[in-house]
């Protein structure tokens, strides 16, 4: 039987060789063109098709309404001895509760309790979670839709002039914003906002700023609110006239506190033009660097951020194409 097969193969060998070569050609062509869906080098596609297929994952975002707003008024004048002025902007009647000298460890334990144990929707709930590990507390009623300036200061009889050297066991000030009406807590997903504020003193003279802001949700999650970095406007003026020595000293203070300069600096004026084409409107935020610098047309061509060259892991849009004129939602 084997001899018959060998004789037949010998008689038809030209056709056999042609079939083998043709099969190899078809398989090679399929691999190069990616017909089989395998992860092989794609060398015959045009650039647009290749960029589209290697586009980074689009992060699914959920738009929520934040009823709380808090910022520092005249941060250059704030200090432990002179106090601080806070400006609130809330969509509903709210309570602003300030905790001076709040324990760092107890605060983060309280955030974990919000996730695992009970919801921190009232000042009383936070005080229970902190086990009263703070030096002084003051509370103010905030009317809805009114930008009120609230002046906060430690009483003189406390005789506190600084909170020690870095790393510290206490934050100078923790501000809690909660909804005053219990019915409003059922309307909003965000039920409270915790702001950690640094205030300069004799020992640590880093300028006053908000270090962290946490949004606490009714479902038990909490999110660290981060600012987005827009491309710098060429026409914007410098934010400060500090000398190089002052900038160097402040940079070293930031490093001691465990903060990067990009996260702690106040936001600069920004341009809404795409940094690549200079024509389209910026609509894409790249993660994890949080640079908002690309329009809908240019985002497909980049796997690295064009501003910092960091690889892009995820991205999301500031507004959908159907609703380009609506207010931009905040990212959680």
From TrEMBL:
Parts of the chain that traverse the membrane: 15-38
Highest taxon of source: Eukaryota
Lineage: Eukaryota, Metazoa, Chordata, Craniata, Vertebrata
Keywords for this protein: Cell cycle, Endoplasmic reticulum, Growth arrest, Membrane, Metal-binding, Nucleus, Transmembrane, Transmembrane helix, Zinc, Zinc-finger
Natural source organism: Neovison vison (American mink)
Keyword ATP-binding: no
Low complexity bias locations: 233-243
Name recorded for this polypeptide: Cell growth regulator with RING finger domain protein 1
Subcellular location field: Endoplasmic reticulum; Nucleus
Amino acid composition bias (Basic and acidic residues), ranges on this chain: 244-254
Span list, region Disordered: 233-267
Function: Able to inhibit growth in several cell lines.
GO cellular component terms, semicolon-separated: endoplasmic reticulum; nucleoplasm
PANTHER family linked: CELL GROWTH REGULATOR WITH RING FINGER DOMAIN PROTEIN 1
SUPFAM superfamilies: RING/U-box
GO biological process, one term: regulation of cell cycle
GO MF assignments: zinc ion binding
Annotated RING-type domain residues: 274-309
Main location, first listed in the record: endoplasmic reticulum
